[in-house]
Amino acid sequence: MDSRRNLYVAAFVGASLSYIFNVLAFTGSFDAFRWFVFAVVFLGFTYGFERFIEWQTG
C-alpha cells in the first residue's frame, strides 16, 4: 500500500501543479476554491478508476 500511496501523491502533485500553472497562464488569477474542487474530483476519479480496474481484473 505504501507504493500505491506514493503514486497517488505523485499524481496529485503533478496534476495540481499543471492545473495551477495553466490557470495562471490563461486567466492570470488563481482561485483556491476551484483548485480544491479540481483536487477532489481528480482524486475521486483516480480512486474510482483504480477500483474499476481492480474489479475487472479480480
Which blocks of ≥5 consecutive residues have pLDDT under 50?
Answer: none
- Rounded Rg: 14 Å
**In percent, how helical is the residue content?**
over 70%
What is the number of helices?
2
Termini separation comes to 17 Å
Number of strands: 0
| Structural class assignment | mainly alpha
How much of the residues is beta strand, in percent? under 5%
Described by strand count, sense and barrel closure, the largest sheet is: none
Question: What's the overall geometry?
Answer: elongated
Overall mean pLDDT score?
92
The helix/strand series, from N terminus to C terminus, equals HH
How would you describe the overall organization of this protein?
With 58 residues, this protein is mainly alpha-helical. Helix content is 90%, strand content 0%. It has helices at residues 2-27, 32-57. The two termini are 17 Å apart. The mean pLDDT is 92.
Short description:
The protein has 58 residues and is an all-alpha fold.
Protein traits:
about 60 residues, mainly alpha, 2 helices, elongated
